Amino acid sequence: MKRFVSVAVIVSLVLTLALAGCGGQKAEAPQQAPAPAKPDVILATTTSTQDSGLLDALIPAFAKKTGYKIKTIAVGSGQAIAMGEKGEADVLLTHAPDAEKKVVAGGSVVNRRLVMHNDFIIVGPAADPAKVKGKKAKETLESFAKTQALFVSRGDNSGTHQLEKKLWAQAGIKPAGAWYQEAGAGMGQTLNIASEKNGYTVTDRATYLAQKKNVALDILVEGDPVLLNIYHVMEVNPAKFAKVNKDGAKAFADFLLSAEGQEIIRNFGKDKFGQPLFFADGGKQEADLTGK
Q: What is the pLDDT of residue 263?
């Protein structure tokens, strides 16, 4: 009888320890971060970060880590910056360096930090009627004007459009006429229009690669230093706009520059395209990329 009791006690102890072990494992499972007191963060950003799919990789990771909820407004960089100037967003992620510097100087945004870069490319029909393949950007635009090959501009004051206007100015050309058409649309839509009309356009590489299967456009001009495409994050100034979610804005900006955020950026696109769509630049300065 005593032996029976001792065996029962042993079995009971084993079961207790096993259950305790299971309970310990359950407690160690990662959990969603609790929601902050002011969880909603309005992000105004360029369409390229959305059309490329990058935000789909960044935002869920940020939400899980911090509990903040990002509300994305994807427009051209010019419109995103204008939202910041009016206090209509909390944080900006844009690629229009000249316009960004002006809004920083005006005091509407603070803490402008370099996040990443890729490049702009000029794409067009495989037949290349303007014969621009392999040329520099300036020579390419001169060829468009000379041959009046159809060119589709975003025409929306986005970072891409601002870069395009700068290229025309450097070439000493004021584009006009039936051959020069403004889409007034985001990058994805502009690529579709150029494809449908058998025309040329300027695009960021990330959006092109993400949309490549949907358009009949080839990369014709690339690698020119003037086509560098740089992205910065900026927080809307809470001292100027009291309603801004300053903690949420800073948390998102910090996440983009964190080891985790930079790793997501660094690897984004490798599995699908065999190459990264963006290059992570956390800790660098714009001069490190431009040499200026």
A: 98
Domains located in the chain, CATH noted: 40-117+230-290 (3.40.190.10), 119-227 (3.40.190.10)
What is the reported pLDDT for 202? Answer: 98
Chain Cα centroid distance, residue 11: 58
Phi and psi at 224, nearest 5°, equal -75, 130
Tokens in use for 267? 């690897």
Tokens describing residue 60: 């869920």
With 60 as the cut, is the pLDDT of residue 14 above it? Answer: no
DSSP states along 106-175:
TTSEEEEEEEEEEEEEEEE-TT-TT--TT--HHHHHHHHHHHT--EEE--S--HHHHHHHHHHHHHT---
* Continuous segment of H or E residues that includes residue 60: helix 54-66
In three-state secondary structure terms, 92 is strand
- By three-state DSSP, how is residue 292 classified? coil
Q: Find the Cα–Cα–Cα–Cα dihedral 274, 278, 281, 282, rounded to 10°.
A: -100
Residues 97 and 58 sit within 8 Å (Cβ to Cβ): no
Q: Could you give the CA distance from residue 153 to residue 150 in angstroms, rounded to a whole number?
A: 10
- pLDDT for the residue 229: 94
Global pTM value: 0.83
Q: Quote the mean pLDDT of the chain.
A: 90
Q: Give pLDDT tens digits for 139-151.
A: 999 999 999 999 9
Residue 194 pLDDT level (bands cut at 50, 70, 90): very high
Please tell me the distance from the alpha carbon of residue 191 to that of residue 188, in angstroms, as a whole number: 5
